[in-house]
Each structure stands twice: as structure tokens, then as C-alpha cells.
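Issue 218. Parser rejects a valid record. Input:
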Amino acid sequence: MKKKVVVIMGGISSEREVSLNSGKAALEAIDRDKYDVYELIINDPMDVVNKMPCDVDFALIVLHGKYGEDGTIQAMLESMNIPYSGCDPLTSGICMNKNMTKKVLKSSNIPTAPWVIAKSVDSIDYDAIEKIGYPVFIKPNSGGSSVATFKVDKKEDVYEAVKKGLEVDDIVIIESFLPGDEYTSFILNGEVYPTIKITSPNEFFDYESKYATGVKGATEEVVYLEESLQNQVNTISENCWDAFNCKAFVRVDLILSDGIFYVLELNTLPGMTKTSLIPKSANARGLSYSDLLDKIIEYSL
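Output the parser choked on:
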């Protein structure tokens, strides 16, 4: 008998369109010989309760940002006794919160850039920022897709960047700018998959680089690093998996600066279109997009 799977997409965050694209791709690719598939587009948080099909065996969550990656919908699904894809509510909530993520990384001796936070423009600690040293990145603490993210080179520009960040979140994180190349590491059921290097035409992997088409977009390619660097990526990835008690799958974003990999963040529900980073990594290991979805469902259960 086929399992009844609902693909949950849309949502109420600024990343709604990204989620809808991921959801449509997943709907097309899920193996219909194994699963009866339904879609659930979230326009309101209570839609997960009010619009959920009956007798669902599994929920494939392809939401991003608030109400998707923050553990909220995971907790609701648990209260409804519906198994779902990915990490549990606690891990999801911590990884959505960059400040909490960095605290766990630091306490686990996993390299991450120095940082401070601001909860209001009046609470900006300019002395602490000075100690970190300019330039700095200023971004919403719980945002995604590099929305309202700014590279700030001097003290005079901090106030405005923090102000804009606070328009989309109640905490802003201010962290050291580490020059270097960006990479991402996909982990499926505790196994580290091929590393992807991200090259952006812009100064960093911002919203435009992630989602623009044509010449403006970033390039993302599977790379096979020299042994010492690859071992560093693999060890950091495994340590993140353990430290955050991840489940099924996660993506760890890194930057290589002066020979050291630093963790930027963990994505518990990363983009899942056919050309997204995770499917590219899986494909390099011989796993098709459809097979990847199958594995995510299998390991989540």
C-alpha cells in the first residue's frame, strides 16, 4: 500500500516564492509508484491544521524562513502525530537563530566568525564592533536567503544597516567579514556528500546571486578539495551534525579564509529545486533528484 505524502510549501516568510518553486519541483519528482502525493500551500499558519488531507503518513516540508525553518510547523505536525522531513523543532529553532547557532558552534569548538548582536538601534555596541574590526556583515538574526544583509565598511554606516535589519527581525547580528571563498556541505543521514563551491559575481552570495538568472547569477560547482581541506570540511560537517542533533538532512554553509573553514550557518530546510545546492551534491554521488527525495522521506521516518 502506498504511503500518503503531503508536500507543504508557500508559507508566510519573505522566501515564499523560493518555497513554491521547491515545492513544485518536489511534486513533479516524487515517485508516484511508492507514494500518493498531495500538495498543501500555506497562506496562513493554521492552514497546516485546517487544510491537511486526512490520514497523511508523511509531510515533506519545503517551507523556508519564518514558520518553516524555525521549528513552528514541525511542532504543529508533532502535535498532529504526522511524521515530517528533517530536523525536530528544537534543532530547527536553534539553527534558524544565527546568534544561538554561533553559541553552539563556539561551545563545540567549531570555527565561526566573531559576532555581536543588537536588539535596537540604541543598543548598538560600537566598541564591540570596533574590536571585531571592519568590515562587518549586518543581517537579521533569523532571516534567510540573504534578505536585508549588508557589508558595512565603516562605523558611520552601521546605524542604517541595523535599522534596516530590524525592519524584518527583532534581533540583528553583526559579525566579522571573513574574506574567502564560500562552500556548502550537504549531509544526508550523517553522511557527508560532495562539497560545492559557490562563486558569486557580487561581493558575497546575496539574494540576487542566489536567485537571479543568466549572467548575474552565482556559479555553483562540485569540487574535490585537496585531502587536508576536504578532511576539514568533513570533520566540521560531522561535528555540526552531532552538536545540533540533526536528523535526515542538513546543509552547512562555510567560508574558507586563510586555510581555515568557518561555519556561516546551518540550513535545516534548504532550497530543493532540481538545480539547488543539495540536489547538485547528491547528483555528484549518483543520486537523482527523485532518489534524493525518496532518501529524505526514508531517513526522516
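Fixed in the parser; the record now loads. The first strand starts at residue 3 and ends at 10.
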